[in-house]
């Protein structure tokens, strides 16, 4: 038995490799998730799968697992929950690379709740963009687009016809928005939620402009340097947000000489294929 997990800030997808059975729990980003919440999610997994009494490997690919300290913490929690020491904790970026590229080389981008990018040499991440998190970075992500929508809406800069529709979808007061952003847990998830509105209205000039501007920022802050250093024009993408905005991603890619090779909304199936081999 091999258990794999792909964990973002919004959700974690767990899969048993041989059977392909999977289950989704909440996102388990260690920067935002308490030990208790992490172990509670693991308890849900134990109820869903039949685990052997002997040690079995767990491969956990997670957002927020970039530092050695966070990887060690996640490994200890997994060991405590499942009683095995055969645990491998990697970043969600490495998970994306293995899922979408396998052993191929290319530029890999994550565009989900958050964002990131790297150059993968077919075995390891050879170059990686600097990630500054959901407050300073996450350009091109649902979080970034959601932030821009909220900024324009609360500042009265959103076009009136779109503003009225936005209010219908998000009737909170300014005070309630600010409370959720500054005083409630998981602000990154909350900020990403209005991006659904932009996707639903992607043919509206304002919404498409917000998404495009965010994608250009993503290219400028994360992809451009990687493209120049790697001399690669192949782009692989992972993330539900990426899958929903493909027409606009195509525009940005073509303008910068990039060829989109593959897009996976959920990397778990790609990771299964990788670990089966």
Order of helices and strands: EEEHEHEHEEEHHHHHHHEHHEH
Q: Mean pLDDT score, rounded?
A: 92
Largest sheet geometry: 5 strands, mixed
With strands numbered from the N-terminus, the spatial order across the biggest sheet is 3-2-1-4-5
Which runs of at least 5 residues are low in confidence (pLDDT < 50)?
Answer: none
Radius of gyration of CA atoms, rounded to a whole number: 19 Å
CA-CA gap between termini: 14 Å
**Which structural class do you get from the secondary structure elements?**
alpha/beta
Fraction in helix: 40-55%
What is the number of helices?
Answer: 13
Tertiary shape:
globular
Task: Please give the number of β-strands.
Answer: 10
Explained architecture:
With 277 residues, the chain is an alpha/beta fold. 49% of the residues lie in helices and 19% in strands. The chain has 13 helices and 10 strands. The protein has helices at 35-48, 68-82, 92-100, 133-136, 142-155, 160-169, 174-182, 187-192, 195-200, 205-230, 240-244, 246-255, 268-276, and strands at 3-7, 11-16, 22-26, 58-62, 87-91, 106-111, 115-120, 125-128, 234-238, 259-264. The chain has a 5-stranded mixed beta sheet, with helices on both faces. A hairpin with a 3-residue loop joins strand 1 and strand 2 (11-16). Helix 1 packs across helix 2 (68-82). The longest helix has 26 residues, at 205-230.
Which key features would you list for this structure?
alpha/beta, five-stranded mixed β-sheet, 277 residues, 10 strands
């Amino acid at each position: 038995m091999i258990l794999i997990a792909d964990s973002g800030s919004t959700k974690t997808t767990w899969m048993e490799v041989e059977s392909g059975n999977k289950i989704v729990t909440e996102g388990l980003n260690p920067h935002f998730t308490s030990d208790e919440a992490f172990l509670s999610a693991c308890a849900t997994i134990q109820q869903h799968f039949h685990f052997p009494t002997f040690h079995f490997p767990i491969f956990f690919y997670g957002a927020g697992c970039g530092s050695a300290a966070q990887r060690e913490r996640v490994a200890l929690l997994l060991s405590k929950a499942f009683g095995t020491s055969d645990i491998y904790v990697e970043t969600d970026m490495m998970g994306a690379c293995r899922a979408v590229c396998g052993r191929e080389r290319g530029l890999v981008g994550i565009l989900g709740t958050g964002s990131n990018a790297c150059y993968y040499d077919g075995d390891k991440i050879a170059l990686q963009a600097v990630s500054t998190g959901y407050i300073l970075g996450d350009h091109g992500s649902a979080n970034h687009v959601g932030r821009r929508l909220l900024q324009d809406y609360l500042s009265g800069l959103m076009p009136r016809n779109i503003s009225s529709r936005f209010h219908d979808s998000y009737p909170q007061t300014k005070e309630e928005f600010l409370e959720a952003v500054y005083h409630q847990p998981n602000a990154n998830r909350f900020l990403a939620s209005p991006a659904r509105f932009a996707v639903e209205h992607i043919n509206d000039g304002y919404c498409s402009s917000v998404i495009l501007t965010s994608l250009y920022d993503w290219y400028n802050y994360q992809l451009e340097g990687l493209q120049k250093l790697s001399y690669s024009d192949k782009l692989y993408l992972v993330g539900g947000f990426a899958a929903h905005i493909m027409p606009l991603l195509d525009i940005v890619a073509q303008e910068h000489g990039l060829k989109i090779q593959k897009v996976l909304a959920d990397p778990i199936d790609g990771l299964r294929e990788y670990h089966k081999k």
